[in-house]
Amino acid sequence: MTEKEKVYLLEEMFEADPDSLRSTTGLDSLNWDSMAFLSLIVLVNDNFGKKLTSQQIRSFKTIGDILAIME
Amino acid sequence: MKSKITCVGFYVPEGILNNDELAKIFPEWTAEKILSKTGIRSRHIASEDECASDLAEKAALALFYDNQIEPESIDFLILGTQSPDYLLPTTACILQNRLGMTTKCGAFDFNLGCSAYIYGLAMAKGLISANVAKKILLITAETYSKHINTLDKSTRTIFGDGAGATLIEVSESDGIGEFILGTDGRGWDKLIVPAGGMRHRNLALNSEEIVRDVGFARTMNDLYMDGPEIFIFTISTVPRLVEETLEKNGFSLDEIDLFVFHQANLFMLEQLRKAIKIPIEKFFVGLEEYGNTVSATIPIALANLSRNGKLKTGMKVMLVGFGVGLSWGATVIVW
Fold first, then answer.
1. Alpha-carbon distance B156 to B253, whole Å?
2. pTM
3. DSSP code of A17?
4. B213 domain-assigned
5. Which residue does chain A place closest to B225, by CA atoms?
6. CB neighbours of B322 closer than 8 A, spacing ≥ 6?
7. CATH code, domain with B284
8. How far is B149 from chain A (nearest CA, A)?
């Protein structure tokens, strides 16, 4: 999956405007709430076959942090 | 001795917490957003002096009335709850008296949450097949609202109070199938009320605020739920649970007429349904009015399905419970 496609998935998940997300975008400025946690778990599981842990999720601060585990 | 579920009833308290009120307290989500994300529109909340035994009593009395059941004919009462009236005496003993049952019956409480109904059915089946009892009243009653901190948005949004009452009797045909049960104590602290038991008894310390999450401070007396971990546990465990339960009962997925899962939250239910490939029309979803009533979700579902004529004699229904403990279980009943 390309970087662009990954960002697109996150844009959809956060209901963010197209092209508004950068690696440095802070999650605090987005809908980073308990529902987003669950959506991210499903997104990563379905697209990358990876199981996130609650600890990992709580350590994410920026879009870049999430992109880093999307592989 | 074979056994079956004869009838199911329920009671939910009159007090309501709806999404409009939640949106006023927690303005980050609108009422509509709460509904679309969780599938919940309202939750029934017990009043200050309303306890699990009160909900249990009303559920049982409604069941007796609707089905012409004499309380004296019941020889065993099982109460599943995690918010008993007292640590002791056993709340089921109190109920024996209030419900007008004879003194010749057995009664006990057991402590499980989201999986309680399944475990309750398993115990009832066991008691009947061992000729310990013939007519069992299984009540699952919960007032999680009393464990919840009013500032905790996520738990206040999800949980509601309620009680289910189920009559299980000796029967000619096998109405309760085989069970798959499971436990993982590694997740013991993922859904927990830390104080209230014997482990933490310093009252002053228990009331102190401990910061555990962004936005508010919780005390040891409050319910703590690690939503993501519970979600991860559920999506890793439940599909396999369903598969094993089908196998043990000798059914294929298609042969099951209806699936009634513990009504945890809409997002989780939808993920499970998709992962297990259960057709929408066979997958019960009914938490809009009640929220997650923990051990009462399944009997409330069955009672409503029965009332609406959706449960026909002979239908094979898979019941699946999973959650706090961590604990899980499933079985197939024939209605």
1. 35
2. 0.94
3. P
4. no
5. A34
6. B114, B115, B233, B234, B237, B238, B241, B261, B262, B264, B328, B329
7. 3.40.47.10
8. 17
The total domain count for chain B is 2
Residue B257: count other Cβ atoms within 10 Å of its Cβ. 17
pLDDT value for B181: 98
- Indicate if the pLDDT at residue A33 is higher than 90: no
When pLDDT is cut at 50, 70 and 90, the band that residue B168 belongs to is very high
**ipTM of this model?**
0.80
State the alpha helices, DSSP H only, in chain A.
3-14, 34-48, 54-59, 63-69
DSSP designation for B217 = E
Same domain as B162, residue B234: no
Tokens read off for B118: 């399944």
Between CA A15 and CA B221 the distance in angstroms is 36
Answer whether residue B299 is part of any domain: yes
Count of residues for chain B? 335
* Nearest-angstrom CA–CA distance, B41 and B291: 8
Q: Which fold has domain A3-69?
A: 1.10.1200
Alpha-carbon distance B209 to B145, whole Å?
19
Q: Per-residue pLDDT tens for B263-295?
A: 999 999 999 999 999 999 999 999 999 999 999
Which residue of chain B is at minimal alpha-carbon distance from A39?
B267
Q: Give the gap in angstroms from C-alpha B216 to the nearest C-alpha of chain A.
A: 14
Q: Is B73 on the interface with A (CB under 8 A)?
A: no
